[in-house]
Amino acid sequence: MLPSWFRSSARDLLWRRPAFHETYGAWGVLVSEFMLQQTPATRVIPHLEAWLHRWPTPAAMAEATTAQVVHQWANLGYPRRALWLHRAAIEIVERHGGVVPRDVDALLALSGIGDYTARAVAVFSYGDRHPVVDTNTRRVLARAIDGRAHPSPPSRRDLTLMEALLPDDDEEAAMFNAATMELGATICTARAPRCDLCPVADECAWLAAGRPDTGDARRRQAAYEGSDRQARGAVLRVLRDAAPDAVPLTAVIPEWPDARQRDRAIDSLIADGLAEADGEGLALPR
DNA sequence: AAAGCGGGGGT
DNA sequence: ACCCCAGCTTT
């Protein structure tokens, strides 16, 4: 059974410890969920600890500069998340008196928060009953319920399906959400699922059908090597390393093979608010 | 509905 | 080499 498996086998992750919630409350959960968006849990932990030590409340973070926030984000990837988290902290101070809201619609209205993060905060911090659906959950449901090897692209159906499966009790529902995610992260994995260890193997439609290869509905991400994203990452790395100093434009990845791509990267970083140009050169935003 | 957006680790 | 990762915003 899923609950007993979760109690005995769940990873001891930082954000599951009572001391974490006692110290940082919903703000700690919110920051962890931002960092966990498309970044593996094991990579997040050291960054999360450093972040919360520096900015233990939304109010503390709201006082920080954009440059500080982008610099602290370091190499976590998708640095716009740092901007959105900063903006969300400011919005929490302005709209909610510095308290992370509990209401899902209020959470959804914050910058950088979507269906997953909003419900994750409401469930894992406040203990309310909502369907929390991430990539692991979608894969588990695709297999156990639909008998498919891979999930379809995210849709509202994921939420209604998970909602229908949730136990009535708030606490049990929260556990069910977490257990389903954990199952997908550790047993029902994308590449090499370990069905021999699965606590719901007896109830799995995909396993019962002989684990058919139903095709992968996922859209393939474009190659990173040579991409604009790689160029942006290289520019931002230079700015982080130089901070708080500006870098002369001629010294920003001058050896990049494609000069037009380099310029495009710089322009798009400025447009996103991740960089600023002045007489001194290019720098993290004031 | 599809595209754009980091970076690292596993296979 | 390729795939995947506790997604979100914009078009």
Strand content: under 5%
**If helices are DSSP runs of H or I spanning 4 or more residues, what is the number of helices?**
14
Instruction: Give the class from helix and strand content and strand pairing.
Output: mainly alpha
> Biggest sheet: strands, sense, closure?
2 strands, antiparallel
Order of helices and strands: HHHHHHHHHHHHHHEE
InterPro entries: DNA_glycosylase, Endonuclease-III-like_CS2, Endonuclease3_FeS-loop_motif, HhH-GPD_domain, HhH_base_excis_C, HhH_motif, MIG/MutY
Protein name: Adenine DNA glycosylase
Organism: Microbacterium paraoxydans
Keywords: 4Fe-4S, DNA damage, DNA repair, Glycosidase, Hydrolase, Iron, Iron-sulfur, Metal-binding
Task: Describe the fold and architecture.
This protein has 286 residues and is an all-alpha fold. The protein is 55% helix and 2% strand. It has 14 helices and two strands, in the order H-H-H-H-H-H-H-H-H-H-H-H-H-H-E-E. Helix 1 (2-9) crosses helix 11, helix 2 runs antiparallel to helix 8 and helix 13 packs across helix 14 (259-272). The protein is globular, with a radius of gyration of 21 Å. The protein starts with a helix and ends with a strand. The model has no long low-confidence stretch (mean pLDDT 96). The protein binds a DNA duplex (11 and 11 nucleotides) through residues 32-44, 75-81, 84, 111-117, 120, 132, 134-137, 153-154, 181, 184-185, 189-192, 218-224, 227-230, 232-233, 236, 272.
